[in-house]
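Subject: Sanity check before I submit

Could someone independently write out the structure tokens for this chain? I want to compare against mine line by line before I put it in a report. The sequence has 71 residues.
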Amino acid sequence: SPYIKDPLPAPCTGAGTAAELTTLPGVGDATAAEIVRDREANGAFTSVEDLMRVSGIGEKKFAKLKDKIRV
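---
Independent answer below. Compare away.
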């Protein structure tokens, strides 16, 4: 069957809770907490690439996430 994007709230929308974010590949408790902290400190993400500003998300992790998140 074809691959379907995960319908969970994306980190970029500002709707994803830390618990929901941990369902994304490569995102554990610490990274999820950093995503939430960054959103609270800097406001909503305006592009999926903005996720790379979060501590703990580099190019490799972003490559795993970019097709599973949306703005």
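---
OP: Matches mine. For the report I'm noting this point. Helices lie at 18-21, 29-42, 59-65.
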